[in-house]
Amino acid sequence: MHSYGGVPGAAAATELNKKQRKLAGRKGGVVGMVFLAAFAFIEGDSFASKFGYSAKKKPDGLVTAQMTSPSPLTAFYNGVSEPLASQSVAALLPQSQAIFRTPSSTPAWPDSTFDGRRAYIRCSQDAVFPVSLQDQIMKDSKVDWIVHTVDTGHSPFLICPADLASHITALADSFQSAEC
After folding, report:
1. Which of 55, 83, 115, 157 has its Cα between 20 and 30 A from that of 168?
2. For residue range 3-14, what is the model confidence (pLDDT) as tens digits?
3. Are 2 and 38 in contact (CB under 8 A)?
4. DSSP-assigned states of every residue in 21-66
5. Neighbour order of strands in the sheet with 33-36
6. Within 10 A of 52 (CB to CB), how many other CB atoms are there?
7. In the predicted model, what is the mean pLDDT of residues 90-119?
């Protein structure tokens, strides 16, 4: 899960871990979770509660009930080569402001089933989500994370996809080999 995707992604995985599905007589399930420079909120948290966002502090680039980044090239795509960086900026769509105020649902990541199978890949050159904030997210979670670091900006899948894939593959392999 990447960036804001950590919030809805972790909520979507709730009660879908392999152990719970097996007990219910179902096949498959989530065996581990990988967060990539992602937010991991506890139930009820929001950007407003964690970081002070409010309707009175509207971001630059406000478009009706949506927001855009005033400098997406440097915020999201620092380190991405041209023309891919410009193509990526052109593909961005405005984001609803509701994500900043809406309390998050119950996430799956705190479940002890994911102990030893909960990973966070930090992006050390991230301009929009600094590594200090990524570390704070993990600290605030009060659970243990397997931590990897890539020396990139916010979009390592565009900067060093093979390196990122090797991190994710190694994590997935370790999750599969761990007993659920």
Report:
1. 83
2. 999 999 999 999
3. yes
4. HHHTT----B--EEEES---PPTT--HHHHH---TTSPPTT-BTTE
5. 33-36, 118-123, 146-150
6. 8
7. 91
